[in-house]
Amino acid sequence: MVKDFKKTIVYADQVTICYQDNKPILDQISLTLMPKSFHFVTGSSGSGKTTLLKMLYLEQKPDRGRFLLFGQDRYKLTMPEIQKMRQHIGVVFQDFRLLPHLTALENVALPLKIIGAKNHEMETQAKELLDWVGLAHQMNAYPHALSGGEQQRVAIARAIITKPDLLLADEPTGNVDDVIAVKIMHLFEELNKIGTTIIIATHNEAVVSRFAYPRLHLEKGKLLEMGNVTNKIEDDYLYVAKKTLF
Ligand SMILES: Nc1ncnc2c1ncn2[C@@H]1O[C@H](COP(=O)(O)OP(=O)(O)OP(=O)(O)O)[C@@H](O)[C@H]1O
Ligand SMILES: [Mg+2]
Known about the structure:
Elements: E1 10-18, E2 24-33, E3 38-42, H1 49-56, E4 64-69, E5 72-73, H2 79-86, E6 89-92, H3 104-114, H4 119-132, H5 148-160, E7 166-170, H6 178-193, E8 197-201, H7 205-210, E9 215-219, E10 222-226, H8 235-244
Parallel strand pairs: 3-8, 3-9, 6-7, 7-8
Antiparallel strand pairs: 1-2, 1-4, 4-5, 9-10
The structure holds adenosine-5'-triphosphate and magnesium ion.
């Protein structure tokens, strides 16, 4: 039982989500995630992984139960507050959701633009990240001209460019080969080291078994927590690392 909700990133108590016919997709799930933790969300196709991530992104509202994000009661948040909170969340959607009229570089830089970063800062960081994910040669391409795996890597670069407090990644290695998948995982680990709480929904058993983070497993609407690796990092280290990454 958590005593201080304000210190949690995610606090869900008996949360239920139904789409139609009152059949719960998430059935009275309870979950407490502390800052700087790293979790996988697993479960078969249709088990509700994306639904859970959408709830955490404040896109899908629970039908019942208590849900706090960053210690704030979800039901009391106004739309402007939700938008503000989302600036602290990086998200890789399962269907990428790149903006079709923006180039790869512009897509990646967009979150920095929204928070008012300077042009040269946006460009430098976006280029560096695209280079890191192996897309230096595709910076000026529009999404329709990119392969699925390339779009996915643009989406990943966009999600992490602001070094968000919370990263939600839905099948982020679903469209890339094993070498790139491992590279992406290392990128997420670097982000986690500087303090980002990471939640990755995946089917990729190779990734889950190679990286020993605890998993939240969805089955028949229930959420089972498996594994107990903790990811505590000294705050002093975090401070130094946050200034040096990228
Ligand atoms: N907008 C929606 N309206 C109605 N039903 C939905 C909607 N979105 C999802 N569902 C249903 O909810 C269930 C869970 O879907 P969800 O996308 O969360 O699963 P998932 O675990 O992410 O699956 P996958 O591994 O295939 O991505 C599925 O049965 C799906 O059909
Ligand atoms: Mg899904």
